[in-house]
Design a protein that fits this description.
The chain is of the alpha+beta class. It folds into three domains: 5-51, Uridine Diphospho-n-acetylenolpyruvylglucosamine Reductase, domain 2 (2-Layer Sandwich); 58-172, 2-Layer Sandwich (Uridine Diphospho-n-acetylenolpyruvylglucosamine Reductase, domain 3); 179-283, CO dehydrogenase flavoprotein, C-terminal domain (Enolase-like, domain 1). The protein contains eleven helices and 14 strands. The protein has helices at 12-17, 33-40, 78-82, 85-90, 93-99, 104-109, 112-117, 125-131, 227-233, 240-253, 264-283; strands at residues 5-7, 26-29, 48-51, 62-64, 70-73, 135-140, 143-148, 153-155, 158-159, 165-172, 179-185, 196-205, 208-217, 224-225. The chain has a five-stranded antiparallel beta sheet. Strand 2, helix 2 and strand 3 form a beta-alpha-beta unit.
């Protein structure tokens, strides 16, 4: 391995100041589960890694704020979120999703900020949080801003983060009675990379869907919202015919990605089937 510099700033602001948007060989490192694999494979050769392990303790915390929103520090681990009683009680959909999000060894090391910033469409956390209407707080050399998780991704391994910005925390708004479901479809073990991820969040009035959010990834090059399918479900009472129509609309509105986990044609059929299942699971 080619030698590189290792620095350990003690504040997030200091870490941001060390980034150079003109030098792609300088990278931040949180848990390093993805970055180290890229380095071992020779895909990425750093000149400097900026460790976030010693930044302020608040970025390692998970809490419910005064308005009922869940705030997840970017340096909190995936296992920490999985084991957060407050988070799971407020958003029970997270419990099932997190237990199949990679294996426990990775979950103990991988960090929330890294899982969101990596940009791999096969990651579980982005579509789940996008379905729940989450946003990220971002700190950069020009100041701070917020980005919805839905708008964080520009393409395959591409985000809308500036080269000198870091995620500080993820903010999940109060559920306000919403019903949610998350499904991950794999061709091998449950914790493997998926062929399809789908997140569903529904606001209902009795049997009628008042508002729907449908998010998919893995089958597509980035986290993708299913606007046409949402429009069909909004204001409707669910039945088999409606779900079939919504599935067909979803398939027609996105571009599918063929990869080692399945062909585009296979993923189309998965979406038709699992959109229906995810909506019914949320309603139940």
């Amino acid at each position: 391995m080619i030698p590189f510099d290792w620095v350990e700033p003690e504040t997030l602001r200091d870490a941001v100041a060390l980034l150079d948007p003109e030098d792609p060989t300088i990278r931040p490192i949180a848990g390093g589960t993805a970055l180290m694999l890229m380095m071992k494979a020779g895909v990425f050769t750093p000149s400097r890694l900026i460790s976030l392990a010693k930044i302020e303790p608040r970025y390692f915390e998970i809490r419910i704020d005064d308005e009922g929103a869940l705030r997840i520090g970017a340096m909190a681990s995936l296992s920490q979120l999985e084991q957060s009683a407050g988070a799971i009680a407020r958003f029970p959909v997270m419990k099932r999703a997190l237990r199949t999000l990679s294996n426990v060894r990775v979950r103990n090391v991988a960090r929330i900020g890294g899982a969101l910033a990596h940009g791999d469409p096969h990651m579980d956390l982005p579509p789940l949080l996008a379905a729940l209407g989450a946003r990220v707080s971002v700190v950069g050399q020009k100041g701070a801003r917020e980005i919805s998780v839905e708008d964080l991704y520009a393409g395959y391994y591409e985000t809308t983060l500036e080269k000198n910005e870091l995620i500080a925390e993820a903010i999940v708004p109060p559920p306000d009675g919403a019903k949610a479901a998350y499904m991950k479809v794999t061709s091998r073990s449950a914790d493997d990379w998926p062929a399809l991820n789908i997140g569903v969040c529904l606001q209902t009035d009795g049997a009628r869907i008042r508002k729907a959010r449908l998010i998919i990834s893995a089958a597509t090059e980035k986290v993708t919202r299913l606007n046409a399918a949402e429009s069909l479900l909004t204001g409707a009472t669910v039945n088999d015919a409606l779900l079939k129509e919504a599935g067909d609309a979803a398939v027609g509105e996105v571009s599918f990605l063929s990869d080692a986990h399945g062909s585009a044609a296979y993923k189309k059929e998965l979406l038709r089937v699992y959109l229906s299942r995810a909506v019914r699971e949320a309603l139940s």
